[in-house]
């Protein structure tokens, strides 16, 4: 069994049984402590949680911990669990240049990932078995560039029910994630004569790069206490605008109702298009999520969704719901590329949606992320009261605003704690005025596997405190 225990910076290559298992785990843990990837004081996951995550017997983990306690690398105390023993470890002298500390981080808190250890393997296998058993032979041939009809229909039903999207399966195009959708849209928009796309002040750099690589210009919109400001669209020259309307990435605010209305009014008046990136719309914790903007005007809004947050980015499954003429143009562009996801995975997702397993999985993950967000907010109040968490109770990440003048030392402390973190300024559009960007971290609390979350939170509080 090869198991990657990435969030503790440990690769385990273990035999499924026998003495090698305990020895391998002991050695991997010892290396992590000795090499400083697990900082002194770090609390290790309970033997039960770690055993479940690694798929080994609880005794194996308990024995490995006991070995390392006996060797002095770990300490075990009633009430405070198993921790890395305090000892002198040389501190890094210079602040790290990159956001990722040298070597592999012990805890990955970068945003953009779901908890990969929670991928619903058994339910997905069940759906795959069903899908492959019932798939017609033609499903294994070259297929409609829009994707399998089973999936387009299942998504249209699901998105209408859950996100208020007006979806006709004929206008759904399946693609390899949101990134692929952007590449296709970039091509089609340029073909229509669009030269500029308005984007949010803070956003994923890769998405901006994908648009610019094809030759489009991107222009940042302002951001204020109400969120992204769409008013400048009316006086600008953009042919489209890309927005994360349900939950701005990364700042965490929904697009204000007035600004939703402004954007739609601009699109209607100018013939522009709104590209709605609904990357984590299902993860709202305090109320029903705000419905998709697309519901307001399906002829002017392109709805973009992905399985990357709700399931896993490795699936490379995304979808677009397009205004009618654009659906034909995007399908034609996609047919030329034929850069598509395999039909077995499409059929599996269709079955996963139809069986109710998708709803069940999202419900379970919503509870998990909600609990983590609550724990993060509570821990900040207790250990770092000067740090402010921005945004609504939603999603898999939070922006943590730091007291002015402390970002550099917090980054250094985070590296020392073995944390991989992202600074807000890294997500700012290069053409946006740096003034007004708070010193802040963007923390992906969804990223660590369950066993590593308590340790990650503790390390974060130490870095912030
Ligand atoms: C804001 C935002 N949109 C979309 C995505 C999904 O991208 P993809 O479907 O290409 O994995 C991500 C993933 O990190 C994201 O952060």
Key terms for this structure?
single chain, about 475 residues, alpha/beta, Arc Repressor Mutant, subunit A, Aspartate Aminotransferase, domain 2, Aspartate Aminotransferase, domain 1, 3 domains, seven-stranded mixed sheet, four-stranded antiparallel sheet, 13 helices, about 15% strand, globular, binds pyridoxal-5'-phosphate
Description:
The protein has 465 residues and is an alpha/beta fold. The protein has three domains: 89 residues, Winged helix-like DNA-binding domain superfamily/Winged helix DNA-binding domain (Arc Repressor Mutant, subunit A, Orthogonal Bundle), CATH 1.10.10; 235 residues, Aspartate Aminotransferase, domain 2 (3-Layer(aba) Sandwich), CATH 3.40.640; 106 residues, Alpha-Beta Complex (Aspartate Aminotransferase, domain 1). The chain has 13 helices and 19 strands. Strands 6-14-13-12-11-7-8 form a seven-stranded mixed sheet, sandwiched between helices. The protein has a four-stranded antiparallel sheet with strand order 15-16-19-18, with helices on one face. Strands 1-2 form a two-stranded antiparallel ribbon. The longest helix is centred in the C-terminal third of the chain and has 27 residues. It starts with a strand and ends with a helix. Pyridoxal-5'-phosphate binds next to helix 6.
Brief sketch in words of this structure:
The protein is of the alpha/beta class and 465 residues long. It is 39% helix and 14% strand.
The largest sheet is: 7 strands, mixed
* Rg, Å, rounded: 24 Å
Taking the alpha carbons of the first and last residues, their distance comes to 39 Å
Strand content: 5-15%
Read across the widest sheet, the strand sequence of neighbours is 6-14-13-12-11-7-8
Bound molecules: pyridoxal-5'-phosphate
Instruction: Output mean pLDDT.
Output: 90
As for the CATH topology of the largest domain, it is Aspartate Aminotransferase, domain 2
Specify the CATH homologous superfamily of the largest domain. Answer: Type I PLP-dependent aspartate aminotransferase-like (Major domain)
Overall form: globular
Going by CATH, the architecture of the largest domain would be: 3-Layer(aba) Sandwich
Number of extended strands: 19
Question: Uncertain spans, ≥5 residues at pLDDT below 50?
Answer: 1-7, 92-101
Q: Please write the CATH class name of the largest domain.
A: Alpha Beta
The number of helical elements comes to 13
């Amino acid at each position: 069994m090869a198991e990657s225990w990435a969030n503790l910076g440990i690769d385990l290559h273990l035999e499924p049984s026998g003495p090698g298992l305990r020895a391998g785990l002991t050695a991997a843990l010892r290396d992590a402590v000795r090499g400083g990837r697990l900082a002194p004081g770090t609390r290790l996951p309970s033997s039960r949680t770690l055993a479940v995550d690694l798929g080994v017997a609880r005794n194996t983990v308990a024995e490995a911990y006991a070995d390392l306690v006996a060797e002095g690398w770990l300490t075990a105390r009633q009430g405070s669990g198993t921790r890395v023993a305090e000892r002198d470890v040389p501190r890094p002298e210079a602040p790290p240049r990159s956001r990722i500390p040298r070597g592999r981080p012990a805890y990955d808190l970068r945003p953009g990932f779901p908890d990969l250890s929670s991928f619903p393997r058994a339910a997905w296998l069940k759906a795959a078995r069903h899908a492959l058993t019932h798939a017609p032979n033609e499903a294994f041939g070259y297929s409609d560039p829009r994707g399998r009809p089973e999936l387009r229909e299942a998504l249209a039903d699901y998105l209408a029910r859950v996100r208020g999207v007006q979806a006709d399966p004929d206008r759904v195009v399946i693609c390899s994630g949101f990134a692929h959708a952007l590449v296709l849209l970039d091509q089609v928009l340029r073909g229509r004569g669009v030269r500029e796309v308005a984007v949010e002040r803070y956003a994923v750099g890769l998405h901006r790069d994908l648009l610019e690589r094809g030759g489009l210009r991107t222009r940042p919109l302002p951001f204020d206490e109400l969120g992204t400001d769409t008013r400048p669209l009316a006086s600008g020259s953009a042919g489209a605008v890309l927005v994360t309307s349900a939950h701005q990435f990364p700042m965490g605010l929904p697009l204000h109702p007035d600004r939703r209305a402004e954007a739609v009014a601009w699109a209607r008046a100018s013939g522009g298009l709104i590209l709605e990136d609904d990357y984590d719309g299902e993860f709202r914790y305090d109320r029903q999520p705000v419905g998709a903007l697309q519901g307001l005007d399906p002829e002017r809004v392109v709805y973009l969704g992905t399985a990357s947050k709700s399931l896993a980015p490795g699936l490379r499954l995304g979808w677009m719901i397009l205004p009618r003429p654009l659906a034909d143009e995007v399908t034609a562009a996609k047919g030329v590329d034929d850069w598509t996801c395999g039909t077995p995975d499409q059929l599996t997702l269709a079955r996963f949606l139809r069986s109710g397993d998708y709803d069940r999985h999202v419900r379970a993950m919503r509870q998990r992320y909600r609990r983590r967000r609550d724990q993060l907010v509570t821990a900040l109040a207790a250990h770092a009261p000067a740090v402010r968490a921005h945004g609504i109770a939603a999603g898999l990440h939070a922006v943590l605003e730091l007291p002015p003048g402390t970002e550099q030392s917090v980054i250094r402390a985070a590296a020392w704690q073995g944390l991989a973190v992202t600074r807000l300024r890294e997500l700012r559009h290069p053409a946006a005025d740096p003034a007004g960007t708070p010193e802040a971290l963007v923390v992906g609390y969804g990223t660590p596997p369950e066993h590593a979350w308590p340790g990650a939170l503790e390390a974060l509080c130490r870095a912030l405190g």
